[in-house]
Design a protein that fits this description.
heterotrimer, A alpha/beta, B alpha+beta, C mainly alpha, B: alpha+beta, four-stranded antiparallel beta sheet, 5 helices, rod-shaped, C: mainly alpha, globular
């Protein structure tokens, strides 16, 4: 490009002007190209350097294809007509080869027609569309040998060599391509629980040695390049090293957030840099930390025990959380004769990715509140993931625990609502009647699990028209001054009820899948009818590992947890296995 | 109170003089009507036969109806009109109904008392013949006034006036109805 | 005016000094409204209060425009300044009822000189207090949904909620206080009517007094009614702050969930209320020259009440701390540790200083009658009692059961403006009261003066 040999450069979707080390000089090189064409969803940094910008279609707007993890091809079908008359990359490439009017569908279908070996393409194709995968396109499995665990070097790293920087894509906004996605920005980063920013992650020992602490602004420099970054002390981080997440500091993606770690990314393609220096600047850089306290304070909320304890005493959890006696109340119990909804969350399976939080946000029209509101503890997520550190700060065990509404049978929130805006359904749902809520917030104060969320300001109002399509029409949008919380996806329950009613049968187990359950990659969340002894949730709750949170309050939570078992490999040095 | 007859108004310096005068007048066959005083004079209402226990009755029955209404409303709403499972508690959560029952008792009793006080005193009184007498305006300061029904004859009225002066009245005045 | 300190057999200063007669007393008190020019200090204080009140109007306007999010509240600390202010103000109000009702039943005649002011203070404090639960609602426009009225939707309030109890308790308290205050005012308004010179002033007071003439029948009903009201206001005042405390105790939150709260709150209310009476009465007595009517005897007695109620509060602190240890409940004991040494710990130590240490000099009589000391102390106690409620509300909530949901809270500019504005509302109402109604009970002061005149004879 620099030598002028490239006359026309078409960039399909990528954003190399941002997502490359500035010292690599891509932007300057790009400017040498006479015809610069960018196809993208947003006018990003690269688009700003180009003389043609083409509006792209979103994956929900076009035809395409992709491979699943075993290599099976899956066809991506559009859900809606392109909103802004965009074109898919396939169409752009076809246009470049002269076919300006090609439909996306034809392009994808023609490719597979050409590559299909066998009879009756139409039938195969239609079946593929119906099933989601095209039959017979998976790869041959390969046999692999497990690698030996990497052995850490014997000698400690040389401290005089300065600090080692290690780079990684951001856990939520990746390399910056999702920087404009407010859902991802506000999703607490797994384990760190930070939102809206990246930071210089370092261990407590390193921070103390450098005389810095959380939210101190520091200048990190490698050679003649430097960035300003906030410090975030991270338990379990290696000493004398700093981790920087890429993807922040974008200048053409709305308000600039975080800092651009590409500035320090080495040119050699490696993901680390040695010899970094750090200087404290004496300014504060406020960070929005969703969970400000990550110690469990000996409360055994997220129970995690070594496997051998379970093996020697399978009912260990009843010692930690003794279930209250059934009759330790003066009051007559309420009966739930029909359906009795409940949820079980397996902490052994949960890996703390936060997908449940996001799925819930999308399903239930949960607003994004912004960095300042997150700092002020006003994030609206109905299911939050608490990350607890246990053990030494240098090498802690990390226990993630998703916390939705427990739908307590004796719900403390209901008792104190003066207008009856939160009451119990006959199936045991702790319901929120938004229309009736006057916003005393007493329910939140009296919720021992603190799962209630309040619309302190008009979080859902004044949204651009284009957001309308994002909203779930089955779920009410809550207005200012109203309390809200997990409903067990009551809209899905009702949908299943209507379907079952039409077919004159009971709702089948597994027919209702809550949003959090639907996306959980490890299937840690199960939901269903507790009155059906054969349901998956009943089976899960019969597990010896099953326990409820804060049972001593006799709230009778419908959501319960299965204690986490850890099978620690003591041969390995780096903590968790 | 009664304004249909002519009256004689006398002004005293102390409540004790007034009380003595009332007793003496009654013994002498006159009809003392009303006393006006800046402070309550103990025994005066009895002497004039104007003791009034209405307030106690009003408060009692007001309070009783408040208690019944308060508890009844809560019971009816929670059990009958809007029965709903709240926090797993029984519909008839009687311990939770006590505070409001108590408050309603006090509220009803006080309101009955206030309204009753207003009504049985026939408030607001915008005109009373005694307002003609400048002495009465001192009855809210330091003078004790008494009205006595004027006897039908002029002579008897004069005798009454003399008796009043004798009993310590500082002045007397005749009031037209 | 020469002040001749009259002392009773116990050597205490008299309730009313210097041989004043009924006429004297009437003239002196009514003159504050009718004859005397408003002192410059009072005018200045009134103007300041009104400015602060305008601040309140601004804060409320912005609140209605943007929502309660302009305050510092969040989840976990969903209640903040509004509830702290509410509890504080309602507590202030309680001293007024205590002085006028309980001391009436106990035949404590020293209440006479201060009961009117204290009752007015009650009313205005209840007005300030009552405003906060409404303002703090997320949707204040629907506050009336707490009232039991038939709706087309057939929904009703939820009577198990302490907030509904609160609504009933506060509105009953406000109503009864108003009736009690006004009933006591009627004979005095008649005195004002008869003392006033200007025709329209006479008319106005005449109307307000409903045409009271002081007949034996009126007095009979008045005295009986007043006594019954006093008898009802006494349990009422105890119930009101008990119900306020139930807002906390009914909740499961550690630091709230305690059977100790009702008596503890009632004592705290009396404590802070008497402090506020001192804060107000000391300057008013000086400015209006009421040294003869409000004597050192009053301050001595009020100090004793403060000392006694302060000790009940101190006892509550001790029991609360002891039980959180003795109860061996993990959450309770953490709460208490956090209260003492946590992020809000410094506040608790200030509370302990203001509400326990600072009042101990009141054991000494000379300090009980040292008005400068008392005035400063009353401010200290007011601050201490506000902080006590802040600690109870905020500190208990900010770290309850789930560490993953813990958080911090601090008031914003709007929180502070609303608090200051409530002082403005209180001050403005007090100013109007001083200008329009007799600040001391004329009829009861007359009774005292008559009684002492009788004695002299």
């Amino acid at each position: 490009m620099r030598t002028g040999q490239v006359e026309t450069l078409v960039i399909l979707g990528a954003n190399p002007v941002y997502a490359s080390p500035p010292s690599a000089g891509f932007a300057e090189a790009l400017n040498q190209v006479p015809n610069r064409i960018h196809l993208g969803l947003f006018p990003d940094e690269t688009a700003e350097c180009c003389n043609w910008r083409l509006p792209a279609t979103h994956a929900l707007e076009h035809w395409s294809d992709a491979r699943t993890f075993d290599g099976s091809a899956s066809v991506i079908q559009p859900l809606i007509e392109p909103l802004y008359e965009g074109r898919s990359p396939h169409q752009v490439l076809a246009a470049l080869s002269g076919d300006f009017l090609a439909s996306g569908q034809a392009l994808v279908q023609d490719y597979w027609r050409r590559n299909h070996q066998g009879e009756d393409f139409e039938r195969w194709w239609r079946q593929g569309l119906y099933r989601g995968v095209l039959e017979g396109t998976s790869f041959e499995p390969e046999t692999v040998e497990p690698m030996a665990a990497p052995v850490p070097p014997e000698s400690a790293p040389n401290k005089d060599a300065g600090i080692e920087l290690s780079f990684a894509p951001d856990p939520t906004i990746y390399d910056g391509r999702f920087a404009e996605n407010a859902w991802l920005q506000e999703l607490p980063k797994p384990v760190l629980s930070l939102t809206w920013d990246n930071a210089a992650y370092m261990s407590e020992a390193t921070a103390k040695r450098l005389g810095v602490w959380n939210e101190d602004t520091v200048e990190i420099s490698v050679g003649d390049r430097s960035v300003e970054a906030p410090v975030w002390v991270t338990p379990g981080h290696a000493d004398d090293a700093i981790t920087l997440h890429l993807g922040y500091g974008r200048e053409s993606a709305g308000e600039v957030r975080g800092f651009n770690a590409y500035e320090l990314l080495p040119l050699d393609g490696g993901w680390s840099a040695i010899g970094a220096e750090l200087r404290k600047l004496g300014r504060r850089w406020p960070l929005a930390d969703r969970q400000t306290h990550q110690q469990m304070e000996n409360r055994d909320l997220a129970v995690s025990v070594p496997l051998d304890r379970y093996q020697s005493d399978p009912s260990f959890v009843t010692q930690i959380h003794p279930p209250p006696e059934a009759d330790n109340t003066l009051l007559p119990p309420w009966k739930y004769d029909g359906y009795k909804w409940g949820m079980a969350i397996d902490l052994s399976a949960c890996m703390g990715c936060g997908a449940c939080t996001l799925a819930c946000q999308a399903e239930n029209n949960i607003p994004v509140v912004g960095k300042e509101a997150v700092i002020n503890n006003r994030a609206m997520h109905w299911i939050r993931v608490d990350y607890y550190f246990q053990g030494s700060p240098a090498a802690p065990e990390i226990i993630p625990q998703p916390v939705p509404c427990m739908h307590c049978e004796n719900a403390p929130c209901e008792l104190v609502c003066p207008v009856g805006a939160t009451v119990h359904s006959g199936e045991g749902l702790n319901q929120m009647v938004y229309n009736r809520c006057v916003g005393t917030r007493y329910c939140s104060n009296n919720c021992p699990y603190k799962v209630r969320r309040f619309n302190f300001l008009d979080f859902s109002g004044f949204q651009p028209e284009s957001y309308d399509g994002r909203m779930n029409p089955d779920v009410t949008v809550r207005r200012r001054g109203v309390m809200e919380k997990c409903t067990y996806c009551v809209q899905r329950i009702e949908e299943a009820r209507i379907t079952a009613g039409k077919e004159d049968r009971k709702i089948r187990d597994g027919e209702i899948v809550t949003a959090c359950q639907q996306v959980c990659p490890t299937e840690a969340i199960v939901f269903g009818d507790l009155n059906d002894p054969g349901s998956r949730v009943s089976t899960a709750k019969r597990s010896q590992r099953d326990y409820g949170l804060l049972l001593e309050l006799n709230t009778k939570p419908r959501t319960s947890y299965a204690a986490r078992l850890k099978n620690r490999n003591d041969a390995s040095d780096d903590g968790e296995s | 109170m009664s304004s249909d007859a002519a009256r004689v108004l006398a002004e005293f310096a102390t409540g004790r003089c007034l009380l003595d005068a009332v007793q003496r007048l009654k013994a002498d066959g006159f009809r003392p009507l009303d006393a006006y005083s800046p402070t309550p004079v103990e025994g005066l209402d009895e002497a004039l036969g104007q003791q009034d226990h209405t307030m106690s009755k009003l408060a009692f029955f007001g309070g009783l109806s408040g208690a019944v209404a308060g508890y009844g409303l809560q019971y009816w709403v929670s059990v009958d009109a809007y029965p709903i499972n709240v926090a797993g508690r029984p519909l008839h959560s009687w311990p939770a109904f006590i505070p409001i029952t108590f408050e309603c008792t006090i509220l009803f009793a006080s309101l009955t008392l206030a309204v009753g006080f207003f009504l049985i005193n026939a408030y607001p009184v915008v005109y009373d013949p005694v307002f003609q007498a400048p002495e009465v305006s001192r009855a809210s300061r330091d003078r004790y006034c008494l009205t006595v029904e004027a006897p039908p004859s002029a002579r008897a009225t004069e005798a009454l006036e003399r008796l009043l002066i004798e009993l310590g009245a500082e002045s007397t005045r005749r009031l037209q109805p | 005016m020469a002040v001749i300190e009259k002392r009773d057999p116990l050597g205490r200063p008299g309730v009313i000094a210097g041989g004043h007669g009924a006429a004297d007393v009437t003239d002196k008190i009514s003159a504050i409204v009718l004859k005397r020019r408003t002192p410059a200090t009072i005018l200045a204080a009134g103007a300041t209060a009104f400015l602060l009140f305008l601040g309140l109007v601004t804060a409320i306007s912005y609140l209605f425009y943007r929502g309660v999010g302009i305050w510092g509240i969040n989840v976990p600390v969903a209640w903040g300044f509004a509830i702290v202010n509410f509890v504080w103000w309602i507590g202030i109000g309680h001293a007024g009822t205590l002085i006028s009702a309980i001391l009436l039943l106990l035949h404590q005649n020293w209440r006479v000189s201060i009961n009117r002011l204290a009752e007015a203070m009650t009313l205005f404090a209840v007005a300030c207090a009552g405003m906060f639960p409404l303002l703090h609602l997320g949707r204040p426009q629907y506050f009336y949904w707490l009232l039991p009225y038939p709706t087309s939707m057939g929904v009703w309030p939820q009577f198990r909620s302490p907030l509904v109890w609160d609504l009933f308790a506060i509105s009953t308290y406000g109503t009864v206080s108003l009736i009690f205050w006004y009933l006591g005012l009627i004979p005095d308004l008649a005195s004002m009517r008869d003392t006033a010179n200007r025709r329209w002033v006479k008319k106005a007071y005449g109307l307000l007094s409903f045409g009271w003439r002081g007949t034996a029948r009126e007095w009979s009903r008045f005295q009986r009614g007043y006594l019954i009201l006093g008898g009802m206001a006494t349990p009422l005042v105890v119930s009101v702050h008990s119900v306020v405390s139930l807002d906390f105790t009914v909740a499961v939150t550690p630091g709230w969930h305690s059977t100790l709260f009702p008596p503890y709150f009632v004592a705290g209310a009396i404590f802070s209320g008497f402090a506020m009476v001192l804060t107000i009465v000391i300057p008013i007595r000086r400015i209006f020259g009421l040294q003869d009517l409000i004597t050192l005897r009053h301050f001595d007695n009020m100090s004793k009440v403060m000392l006694a109620s302060g000790w009940i509060v101190a006892y509550s602190y001790i029991v609360e701390t002891f039980i959180s240890w003795y109860g061996a409940n993990q959450f309770e004991s953490y709460m208490m540790w956090n209260r003492l040494f946590g992020q809000y710990g410094y506040m608790y130590w200030i509370v302990l200083f203001c509400n326990i240490i600072a009042i101990q000099p009141l054991w000494k009589r000379s300090l009980r009658q040292n008005l400068v000391f008392l005035w400063v102390l009353s401010i200290v106690v007011n601050v201490g009692m506000w902080l006590e409620r802040y600690v109870i509300v905020v500190q208990s909530l900010h770290r309850d059961f789930m560490p993953g949901a813990w958080g911090m809270y601090s008031g914003t500019f709007w929180d502070w403006l609303t608090l200051l504005g409530s002082f403005g509302l209180f001050g403005s109402l007090l100013f109007l009261f001083l200008r329009l109604a007799p600040a001391l009970s004329i009829s009861e002061a007359r009774e005292l003066a008559e009684a002492s005149a009788e004695e002299r004879r």
